[in-house]
Amino acid sequence: MHGKTWVLCLLLLLAMGLGSQEALPPPCDSQIYCYGDLLHQVQMAKLFLDDKEFVDMPLSMAPDQVLLSFEELSKAHNYSIPRQQLQNFLAKHFQAARQELEPWTPGDWKDSPQFLQKISDTKLRAWAEQLHQLWKELGKKMKPEVLSHPELFSLIYSQHPFIVPGGRFAEFYYWDSYWVMEGLLLSEMPETVKGMLQNFLDLVQSYGHIPNGGRVYYLQRSQPPLLTLMMDRYVTHTNDIAFLRENIGTLALELNFWTEKRSVNVSSGGKSYILNRYYVPYGGPRPESYSKDAELADTLPEGDRDALWAELKAGAESGWDFSSRWFSGSPNTNSLSSTRTSKVVPVDLNAFLCQAEELMSNFYSRLGNDSEAAEYRNLRAQRLTALTAVLWDEEKGAWFDYDLENGKNPEFYPTNLSPLWAGCFSDPAIADKALKYLEDSQILTYKYGIPTSLQESGQQWDFPNAWAPLQDLVIRGLAKLPSPRAQEVAFQLAQNWIRTNFDVYSKKSAMYEKYDITNGGQPGGGGEYEVQEGFGWTNGVALMLLDRYGDRLTSGAWPALWEPHCLVVALLLSLLPSFLPQ
C-alpha cells in the first residue's frame, strides 16, 4: 500500500474509533434508561434537581415508540431539543417517577415485640416503639404490570414485598437490606425477611449476582456481599433448614461471582495471594447521576472518560459512593475525577467474604455435605492468610486497604477493624491492639459517633459524616472480643451513637441515612444529593444497639466527663474495680 494512502486509511480508522481502545459496554441494554441520545439530552438539560428522577419514570408506551418519537423530535430540532419541548415530550411519553411501587404494610408486623421490654430508659423505649412503627412506612410492593410489561419500567421485578431505605431510595438496595433485616428480626417479622431473601436469591438465579439496587441501570454492579450473612441471621432466628437446603447452591453461585469477576492477585513478601476488589468494567455515565458524571469527565481527555466512569461505578459498588478512600494515592487526592476504586483491595470486602466462606462451611456441615464444608473451610483459611500477609499492620494494630500501585493506605476508616466484626482473625492479643489503634487515631474523642474518615473532602463517605453500618462494624467487632475493656468501649460507642440518633429524632421527628458528628450531631451532608430520611439501616442498627444494651443506655444529656478524651477516661475508670483487692 502506498505510504500516503496507508496514513489516510489509519486516520480514517482512528476517526471511526476502530484504531482506539474498544469502548466499554453500557450498564444495561436499555436505550432509554442506560445509554443513548434520549438519556443524554434529558439528563444534560437538568429538568430535575436529581438525575435519578428521570430514570425512575415508567414509560407510557412501548420503548420502540418512545425512541421513534424522540428521533423525529430530535431531527426536527437539529439534534438539540429545546428545554420546553423536552418537558412536553416527557409529559406525553413517561409517567411520574416511582408510580410502579405501592405502599405495603407487612403482614407480620405486630405491636410490642419482646425486645422493647429490655429497654430500661422510658424515653428510649418510646422511641424504639416509633422506630418499630417505621417499618410500615418503608414497606413497598410492586404493581402487577411490572411483571406483565417489564419493558415499560426501569424497576427490576421482585415477587415479594420489601422494606426500602427511604427518600430517593424507593427500591431495594443490597447491603442496606442486611441491617434492615437485623431490625426486622428484632421486630419479630421473619416472613418479611424471608420474602426479601427470596427476592435476592431470585436475582442471583437470573443475573448471577445481586445488583446494587432494584433498577436496570444498577444491573452490572453489585454491593458488599452480605447475602450469606442474611441467610445465617434468618436461619438462626427461624431454624428454617429446609429454606437453607433449597438455596445453598444459590448462595454458592453468588460467591462464585465475586471469585470469578472481582478477584485480583497481590504480591507481598515474595508470595502471591488472591484477594477481592470492587470492579465494574462498564462505560458511560451512571444513568442516575448522568449529568454529574458527564461534567466531571469533561475535565479529562476523551480517551480517559470511560475509565473514570467505570471507576465511579466501582465506587458505587463499594457502597461508599463517594470517599477520599477511593482517590487516595492519586496526585489530586481531593478530586472525585481521581477515583480509582478498582486499584484498591478493601479490608471490609475481604472481611465480608472471609465471613461468608466460614458461614458456607458451617451451612454445608449442617446439611451433611462434608466435602463442600471442607472446601469453604480451606477458602477461608487461604483468605485469612492473605488478609494477614497483605492487609494487617502489626505496628499499628489494624488492617489497611492495599493500593495495588502504592501499597497500604495508612488512613483511618472504621472498616480497618471490620475483620473483628467478621470474626476473621487469629491473633489472641487483637483486643489490646485494636483499642490502642482507636486511641492512637483519636477516634475515642468523637462523642457523637465514629467518623467515616478523618479527611474532609466534601464527599459523603468522609468526615464529618458518620454512618450506622460503620458504627456497627466497630461496636460489634469490639463487643465480640473476650476482653472486658473492649466490651466497655463498645458500650460507650453505642451510647454515643444512640444519643445522637435520639437527639436528632427528638428535634426533627426523623431518622437519617447519615449524621454530621460535629456541632452536637445533626443530619449529614455532602456528596451528590440532599440527606435522606427514612431510614432503613439507621433504624436497624439503632434497634440492634437498643436490644444489646437496653438495660444500660440512657437518653439524658452527655455527662461532663464526656469531653474530648472522655471515653478514654471513662474506660480507665471502668477498669479500676478489676485492680482493687476483692
UniProtKB/TrEMBL annotation:
Intestinal trehalase is probably involved in the hydrolysis of ingested trehalose. Keywords: Glycoprotein, Glycosidase, Hydrolase, Signal. Pfam families: Trehalase. Gene3D superfamilies: 1.50.10.10. Residues 1-23 form the signal peptide. One of its GO terms (molecular function) is alpha,alpha-trehalase activity. Its EC number is 3.2.1.28. This is Trehalase. GO terms for biological process: trehalose catabolic process. Belongs to the glycosyl hydrolase 37 family. It is an enzyme of class 3 (hydrolase). It catalyses: alpha,alpha-trehalose + H2O = alpha-D-glucose + beta-D-glucose.
